[in-house]
Amino acid sequence: MATRTRGTGNVGTGKDAPVGNTAEISAETAKRAQQGASDGEGNKPAKALQSGIEQVKGVKVPAETRAAETTTIARPLDLPDIADASFGTASHEVSKNVVETVHGPDDRVKITSTGVYPWRAHASLLITARDGSMWIGTGWFIGPHTLMTAGHVVYIKNSGVAGRDGFVRSIKVMPGRNGSTLPYGSVTASDFRTVRGWVDNGDEDHDYGAIILPTNLGSRTGWFGFGVYSDATLKASVGNISGYPGDKPDGTQWYAARRIDSVGPRKVYYDIDTYGGQSGSCVYRISGGARYAIAIHAYGGATTNSGTRIVTPVYNNMVAWKA
Predict the structure, then answer these.
(1) pLDDT for 243-257, tens place per residue?
(2) In the chain, where the domains are located
(3) What is the CATH number assigned to the segment(s) 14-322?
(4) What is the DSSP letter of 90?
């Protein structure tokens, strides 16, 4: 059920008007165009490289652009990608705007040190829909009790299954998961946010949402900064994505990086390999050794995948949801 927004803060309006599944939605004015990151408690954070990528063995950013070729991965998902709930498996086969793809050779590298920041700020999600069906996705911390993800992770649209559509029942959040190992345990959330553009229209440009935890687990894991950046800044950036793809061993985290391909008014496009289960992953740039989100990964295509761009209305909602 949609709820009212209280307060007069500078949160999104129109299609970016926030919607939650609890009694009230906090509205707090955004003070800056960039929010800082935190590396959490304990453990020395992983060091990023000056080239704008994480210091992960086997990862590099090639200068060339890959040919328009998509790798077919035969391994079935242990649990279905949450994107299938709204878009359907059949639509993944025909829609260039839905499928999350590996383009050419698979550049993803497995992360094993998931108990270290920034890897622990990414979370494996086990999602229970309203009808009790189970799904997988990815989320990432932006504050002590808030994770960002795709709108279709927290709110299912047009499933065609009785009792399934709407805000999901619950999400089990497992930060830094590494298979059966949960370095920060897990917490189950039932408090979610998204926006009118997704709830009312299933608008790809407004496919973003948040998970509000009943604890401050993010204070231990740390979180990503985020900001509103110009077209020129984004096109000059290297995009980084880490998450929990379903074609890899269950609950393992995989990372890849490439330069941003192009940007649109509400989208960021990149030739970074992803797969089902990574819906909601953080697309981030590294600046001054800190990690700043630029988009929320949500869609794919024959030559590039894409994320919902953090523009001012999105940023303002994120600030309010972080509060």
Answers:
(1) 999 889 999 999 999
(2) 14-322
(3) 2.40.10.120
(4) H
